[in-house]
Design brief:
With 712 residues, the chain is α+β, with helices and mostly antiparallel strands. It folds into 4 domains: 319 residues, Rossmann fold, CATH 3.40.50; 132 residues, no CATH class; 110 residues, Sandwich (Immunoglobulin-like), CATH 2.60.40.10; 83 residues, Immunoglobulin-like (Sandwich). It is 18% helix and 26% strand. The protein has 14 helices and 33 strands. Strands 6-9-5-10-11-12-13 form a 7-stranded parallel beta sheet, with helices on both faces. Strands 18, 19, 23, 24 and 25 form a 5-stranded antiparallel beta sheet that branches. Helix 9 runs parallel beside helix 10, helix 11 runs parallel beside helix 13 and helix 12 crosses helix 13. It is elongated, with a radius of gyration of 29 Å.
């Protein structure tokens, strides 16, 4: 199987069998840079077309690069334009500054392609790292192509990649939400101890994850509509990852990919919460479920190159290859050595560029060596499936070792009866397979990277392995054991220092805004400084976030300062705002910045808490000398408004405030939205005359009555 298709419950299979079809909105087109357009000339959808892999000797004659491959040279700048700033920044974590780009990253030499076209070749796909192209054509002569001086080798795409046919080119030169209610999805995350990281405010913020699969129906799924999808790329048809309105796709084409994405990106409590729902995502569709062919390895490699160039930090692909249709050559286990198959080579290439790759072990059982490639890739984190009772590996989970004797899988996560989303039948279902256990741990790794953005891929892999359940006695069924993401965070903390939520906390208290950070383990020698810039002034004020509270108190009047010759601050929703960030130092040395780059808005009288944060652990309760009620009291007619102070410890709710006169007559009521934490809610009293009144407030099952006066 090339797709580790989850094993569904019998009842669900019956439901699926009687479903006639479905219809959904057409998803938006893929937005790709202009440089990518030439490689998207031919959809790879024909099951009858003959495709050839043509491996080229070089990236063009060296005589055309007199200055070599370096900054300023035309080919270098052309290569640089293919990569985002984020991709280069991620590479800088693992590569020297002067080696962020190599000739292997350069585009295919266009004159070589022109020569191929003159001989009837239609370019279907380009792989820069392999320096190869996938071609098709009615009258192509393989022998003629092989005789071309710039061609290293030619092979059918129906064949597996053979070591003897490949000559590697060697280079000569702010979302907020309440504390999660996981529902039935709690078990699959709790086994890997992921929820404690959510409670610390870590949900994958600042991390970009690439997912390779069969397609993704994320716009139609309730749990995925809020996911941050940065881009999509359909390698097969080069248009979109949606299968809507297509007659040439199977109706379940994107079912598997939707399930996999939901396990990591979903947020729909209490139905389903993904492991890293605060991360951002790029999606690549590489699988055609109508067949099982070698060409899908080429698609996978092209999708991975695209994801790497977009700047993903982590890649997860619940796919594997070993056996193919009778028309194609299958791969013997002797070649599961991590350096032979096209996909294993591509995973290793991505890892060398700083991408942490998560790969499923496979679903061929725990008896014997049953891995599929690229689970044999040395640099990959290979994930097996635990049974639903967590007492051992699921019977279907593939085992190692690799052909060259290395232990695989690396880690285990729940892979049986995993709650996921599906575009067919019921929106949520329990499914099984290493396809589901893999994205759980990819999400766990995203939480670690969110806490420590400077961690290198192999460092994340190391802390996950060292803290797994059988780290000291690994085997080829469960590898190093069940992953413990919280334990990995603790070990990373010992090495890298304090853990803080990547977002700022902000809430009103009387006539001031409290702004601070959530710190999981303050430790000794920690100093935090809040830098606030009040719009439109360019002045920046510093506030020390002292020991214990980690908060600064900013009077509302500060947000309304009028700079000399200027107007009031920037208006947003009827109030003023500022931009802020925090610098954290340990023993005087710079440690982290919140956020990593740029600033976050601070809006007075609004509550903003990092999604998932355990509010009960934060010092946001009212001071002892301040109680809930109406302020000020008495109220001047000139003031016209009164502030109702409410301190809600539960997730967002609604408060009803009724106003009565001294005779008990009901005058009016207002319903007001209340967020978790301290809320100061304005009430308009301009219609009331001077006298004594009562306010009755109901929220979260509480009833309070406050007496107040309006004076002339």
């Amino acid at each position: 199987m090339n797709r580790h298709q989850p094993c569904f419950d019998a009842a669900f299979k019956i439901v699926c069998a009687i479903i006639i079809g479905y219809w959904c909105d057409l998803m938006q087109p893929v937005l790709l840079p202009a440089q990518t357009a030439p490689m998207l000339a031919l959809p790879l959808q024909s099951t009858s077309a003959t495709f050839l892999r043509v491996f080229l000797r070089d990236k063009g004659p060296e005589s055309l690069r007199p200055s070599g491959f370096q900054a300023g040279a035309p080919l270098y700048e052309q290569t640089r334009a293919l990569h985002t700033e984020r991709a280069l920044k991620r590479r800088a974590k693992v590569l020297p500054e002067n080696a962020l780009l190599s000739l292997q990253d350069a585009p295919i030499f266009e004159p070589y392609l022109d020569s191929l076209r003159k001989r009837g070749a239609v370019i279907a796909l380009r792989l820069r790292w392999r320096n190869s192209v996938l071609v098709t054509g009615a009258n192509l002569s393989v022998e003629e192509l092989r005789r071309l001086p710039f061609v290293a080798s030619v092979q059918s795409a129906r064949e597996r990649l053979k070591p003897t046919t490949v000559q590697e080119y060697v280079q000569k030169s702010t979302t907020n939400c309440p504390t999660p209610n996981y529902g039935n999805a709690l078990r699959q995350l709790a086994l890997s101890r992921i929820p404690p990281l959510h409670a610390a405010g870590l949900t994958g913020q600042g991390v970009v994850i690439g997912v390779i699969d069969t397609g993704f129906r994320w716009k139609e799924q309730t749990s995925l509509k809020g996911a941050s999808i940065l881009g999509e790329y359909d390698v097969i048809r080069q248009d979109t990852t949606s299968t809507a309105n297509r007659t040439d796709d199977r109706r379940d084409q994107d079912s598997h990919g939707t399930q996999v994405l939901s396990v990591i990106a979903a947020y729909d409590p209490p139905n389903l919460i993904g492991a890293a729902f605060g991360a951002q995502f790029y999606l690549a569709k590489t699988e055609d479920t109508r067949y099982e062919r070698n060409i899908e390895q080429d698609n996978y490699a092209a999708g991975l190159e695209w994801l790497e160039s977009r700047g993903v930090d982590i890649m997860t692909a619940s796919l594997g290859y070993s056996r193919f249709d009778s028309t194609d050559e299958s791969m013997p286990y002797s070649e599961m050595d991590g350096k032979t198959s096209l996909v294993a080579r591509s995973v290793n290439d991505a890892a060398r560029r700083g991408v942490l790759c998560f790969i499923p072990a496979g679903n061929d059982g725990i008896t014997g060596s049953t891995l599929s490639t690229p689970a044999d890739a040395d640099s990959a984190v290979v994930v097996g499936a635990m049974a639903a009772d967590s007492l051992g590996a699921a019977a279907f989970s593939s085992s190692g070792p690799t052909a060259d004797g290395r232990i695989k899988p690396d880690l285990m996560a729940q892979g049986q009866r995993v709650v996921s989303a599906s575009p067919i039948g019921q929106e949520y279902q329990a499914a099984s397979g290493t396809s589901l256990s893999t994205p759980i741990l990819a999400g766990g790794a995203a939480l670690l990277l969110s806490a420590f953005p400077n961690m290198k891929p192999w460092e994340i892999r190391e802390v996950l392995i060292k803290t797994a359940s059988q780290a000291k006695k690994p085997d080829n069924v469960m590898g190093y054991g069940i992953a413990d993401v919280e334990g990995a965070l603790t070990q990373a903390t010992a090495r890298y220092g304090v853990v803080a939520s990547p977002e700022l906390l902000s809430y009103p208290l009387l006539e001031a805004q409290r702004v601070g950070i959530a710190v999981k383990n303050p430790g000794a020698g920690l100093e935090a400084t809040l830098f606030v810039q009040f719009a439109p002034s360019q002045d920046t004020m510093r506030f020390s976030l002292g020991d214990g509270t980690r908060f600064a108190t900013i009077p509302f009047a500060q947000f309304q300062r009028t700079p000399a010759g200027g107007a009031m601050g920037m208006a947003i929703a009827g109030t003023m705002q500022a931009q802020a960030f925090v610098e954290v130092r340990i023993n005087g040395a710079a440690h982290l910045r919140i956020p990593r780059t740029g600033t976050l808005p601070i809006i007075p009288r609004q509550t903003s808490l990092p999604c998932g944060l355990n509010v009960s652990r934060l010092p946001i309760e009212l001071p002892d000398n301040v109680k809930e009620g109406l302020f000020p009291n008495p109220i001047s007619r000139a003031t016209r408004t009164v502030s109702l102070l409410v301190n809600a410890q539960e997730p967002s709710t609604e408060a009803e405030c009724g106003i009565f006169n001294s005779f008990g007559q009901h005058l009016f009521s207002e319903k007001i939205s209340v967020n978790t934490g301290v809320n100061i809610l304005p009430l308009d009293m301009s219609s009331l005359a001077s006298g004594v009144y009562f306010a009755r407030v109901r929220y979260n099952g509480r009833l309070s009555v406050y007496k107040f006066m309006i004076v002339p």
